[in-house]
Amino acid sequence: MSAPEESLDLARVAGRAAADKLAEEVIALDVSELVVITDVFLVCSGDSERQVSAIVGGIEEALLKERRRKPLRREGERDARWVLLDYGDIVVHVQHAEDRAYYALERLWRDAPVIDLQIDEDRSA
């Protein structure tokens, strides 16, 4: 069984918002079979603290505007090196590129299937 459609939808909205703020390597992992606390991890990165903050703002704005969802919890905003946005169904990790390379969440969760965020299709339409 994979993540529910609602979780996939939230991940796609968040992924598009991150891409709109020029986030790098936007990837979503279906962790619904591996953890009980959430369905999807969305991971992306920015080259500076300012860009990380802009990506976070873009994701929050899009999920509020398009799906009326606010994060249940936020962590890391002050330093803007690794910001975590917990929406319950999805957890968004926006990392500084250096931190992302160091912590390598994709390798840690390599058993999780990658979700097609359909970002490229949206941009060509």
TrEMBL record:
Oligomeric and partner information: Interacts with ribosomal protein uL14 (rplN).
Q: Which UniProt keywords apply?
A: Cytoplasm, Repressor, Translation regulation
Role: Functions as a ribosomal silencing factor. Interacts with ribosomal protein uL14 (rplN), blocking formation of intersubunit bridge B8. Prevents association of the 30S and 50S ribosomal subunits and the formation of functional ribosomes, thus repressing translation.
Q: Please provide, in alphabetical order, the Gene Ontology terms of the cellular component aspect for this entry.
A: cytoplasm
| BP GO terms, sorted | cytosolic ribosome assembly; negative regulation of ribosome biogenesis; negative regulation of translation
Q: Which organism is it from?
A: Brachybacterium ginsengisoli
UniProt entry tagged with the keyword Repressor: yes
Query: Any idea what this protein is called?
Result: Ribosomal silencing factor RsfS
Subcellular localization(s) per the UniProt record:
Cytoplasm
Matching entries from HAMAP family are given as: Iojap_RsfS
Name where it mostly resides: cytoplasm
Family label: Belongs to the Iojap/RsfS family.
Q: Name one GO molecular function term.
A: ribosomal large subunit binding
- Keyword check for Transferase: no
Domain of life per record = Bacteria
